[in-house]
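Reviewer 2 asked us to include a model.

Predict the structure of this chain.
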Amino acid sequence: MPHHHPVAQLIASFAAGDFLPPDGGWQRVDPWRPGLEAVIAFTGRAVFAISPTVGDDELMALGADGFGGAHDPRLIAAIAGPGAWIDSLDALLVGRGTRTTDAPARLVPRPDLRSHPRALLAAGLRDDVEVLGHPGGDDSSVATVGRGVGGLRELSFEVDPAHRGGAGTSLVRDALTTVAAGELVVAAVAPGNAASLRAVLAAGFTPVGSLQLFRRAARDERPTARTG
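Predicted model (structure tokens):
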């Protein structure tokens, strides 16, 4: 799929090792999903995918920069406004799909898991979400793959409590078999969720930046859980 949104183009470039100068600069782009806005930081750069209701002068007055200022809690609280839903600050990582014509995907659609909190969260933040799991109904481990950050494929997952203890990595790898080989996949993981972070790293994902999503209160479409 072509990477049309500027955020997708940046992530694709960074994933390929083509980085912007780490000069502390920042830029703004349109949100990739109506009602969902984001602050994204890369090495020495920042991107605001926000509505035009917040002006450049206001961002500068709040200390926006590519050296950490973009993620100042006071800045995002100010631009999101009173009563907004503000997600956790996540590490943003990239991986690649592994599906080939030689082997079937190792996860299957699991409509019985659509009410899982992880699936409900994904449906509130992403488009074209697939809810996936292992065949059979005795394992509630779930993975979702949808169109998320910048319109790129985005993966999220949660291991059944009865199967925890290292199963996260294999679940992520299995989820990647549902995405065409070589296609870019992103994952957003809260740094404090060390188990999930270790799982995506072991599955071959690489950190490229950090991400914080928010919805203004006026939209009244706030998800009911947090990512990562």
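Helices lie at 6-15, 56-61, 73-80, 117-125, 167-176, 194-202. Residues 6-15 form the longest helix (10 residues). We have added this to the supplementary material.
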